Amino acid sequence: MTRTPATQMDAARRGIVTPQMALVAQKERRTSEEIRGWVAEGRVIIPANHAHASLEPNGIGSMLRTKVNVNLGVSRDVRDYDVEMQKVRSAVDLGAEAIMDLSSHGDTQPFRQRLCRECPAMVGTVPVYDAVIHYQRDLATLSADDFVDVVRLHAEDGVDFVTLHCGIARETIDEIRRGTRRMNIVSRGGSLVFAWMSMTGNENPFLERYDEIVEICREHDVTISLGDACRPGCLADATDGCQMAELLRLGELTQRAWDRDVQVMVEGPGHMPMDQIAANMKVQQSVCKGAPFYVLGPLVTDVAPGYDHITAAIGGALAAASGAAFLCYVTPAEHLALPNMDDVRQGIIASRIAAHAADIAKGIPGARERDDRMADARRALDWDAQFAQALDPAIAWAIRDSRAPEDDHGDTCSMCGKFCAVRSMNKALAGERVDLL
Ligand code: SF4
Predict the structure, then answer these.
(1) What pLDDT shows up at residue 145?
(2) Cα dihedral 358/360/363/364 (nearest 10)
(3) Is the sign of the CA dihedral 120, 133, 210, 182 positive or negative?
(4) Residue 146: exposed, middle, or buried by beta-carbon count in 10 A (0-12, 13-18, 19+)?
(5) In angstroms, rounded to a whole number, what is the distance separating the alpha carbons of residues 2 and 17?
(6) Which among 30, 56, 62, 57 has a CA at the least distance from the CA of 43?
(7) Of 69-73, 173-177, 371-375, which one has max mean pLDDT?
(8) Where is [4Fe-4S] cluster annotated to bind (predicted)?
């Protein structure tokens, strides 16, 4: 008797096109066979936990449309789960394909379970954050078993991908202690793993127990997102030995998950000067054999708090055009506070602009069609059609409406008024008189 495929990758390797692969093929204008082949190779992932019934699956891979993740979740200072659920709905409406629940306060399981019940986007978590909250015990008192059990709990709850900070080892502790980095470790999960290893003297439990965790992920078809504990937290640390040593470990761990048909993506920088981004994407693709790259920014300068959705969008566009498949949004509140609804909105739109710009540059099928429709709408001075193509129609409408021309016939905006180039050209080409005064 043939067994049921354990994971999307297992199915793909056995020549089976799953309903999720067929749906992704349709959305991406690819053939089912192309998607199946890429999933089999690990170059495309479809995070889809067996238990996430409300999921509308998406594929992640550099040859597909660039996807956007939104981080949410309560903290000790901002802890209203209903507000977080509103942010989830707003994120999905604005086009986010994934939600990471990074809650670090209270009873996190009901919110996680509700997300997996109601959210059509992929759901991701970082189990190491949740371990302290789940057990309500200090970090140093937790055992390796406790961490593994939290991964299992999240997998059972229906989470589609988990970030695991497996890439740091005892030698990383020594290297960081030697003071080689300007910003040490800025990954929240990475810092917790580092602190646990420092306090207990033990090896990284996510590294040491990796094969066991892979089996849990195989059982539930949870995708492993290999966390970048050593992502540079400032330009000075970009592409340093610490980041590269971790990446080499992540390459080995990618293969070990693939050996058990478990899907993998690899997380990346961080803060990084623009001239290093393309090279980093190439190195990652080579070391991790084409596994999709999930970048956190990259932020291309350190000096714009309040505007880091812009510094990240610049880096994200460059990264995605150079091969990254998945962008983690960054909001204006980055480095400053938990984002509110407006921060979330601005962060998503900035990431979607970056993703879309990269998709056009990469020649992703159909990526430019919306821009062409916008050009036609602009040439026709058809404002409703322009709003329909806008990434954020509400903002576009509000700006025009608040500053409409005094004598508004809909044939200009208040920027140039009667000197509107589009109007003048339309009239001149139609043989009409161009009246300016
Ligand atoms: S008035 Fe100027 S900015 Fe406005 S639509 Fe015409 S050309 Fe564009």
Answers:
(1) 97
(2) 80
(3) positive
(4) middle
(5) 15
(6) 62
(7) 371-375
(8) 413, 416, 420
Q: Is the CB of 386 under 6 A from ligand 1?
A: no
Taking the domain 47-362, which CATH number applies?
Answer: 3.20.20.540
Residue 420 is labelled as binding a ligand: yes
Instruction: Using the predicted structure, report yes or no on whether residue 219 has a pLDDT greater than 80.
Output: yes
CA–CA gap between residue 259 and residue 7 (Å, rounded): 12
- Kindly indicate the confidence band of residue 78, based on its pLDDT and cuts at 50, 70 and 90: low
Decide whether any atom of ligand 1 lies within 6 Å of the 377 Cβ: no
- Tens of pLDDT along 6-55? 999 999 999 999 999 999 999 999 999 999 999 999 999 999 999 999 99
100 annotated ligand binder: yes
Quote the pTM value.
0.95
| Residue nearest ligand 1's atom 7 by CA | 420
Query: Could you tell me the distance, in angstroms and rounded to a whole number, from the CA of residue 403 to the centre of ligand 1?
Result: 13
Which ranges in the chain are annotated with CATH 3.20.20.540? 47-362
State the chain's mean pLDDT as an integer.
95
- For residue 82, pLDDT beyond 90: no
Instruction: Please indicate whether residue 278, judged by its CB atom, sits closer than 6 Å to ligand 1.
Output: no
Q: Which has the minimum average pLDDT: 131-140, 285-294, 311-320, 365-374?
A: 131-140
- Sequence letter at residue 216: I
Whole-Å CA distances, 392 to 222, 236, 404: 32, 35, 18
Region 154-166 average pLDDT: 97
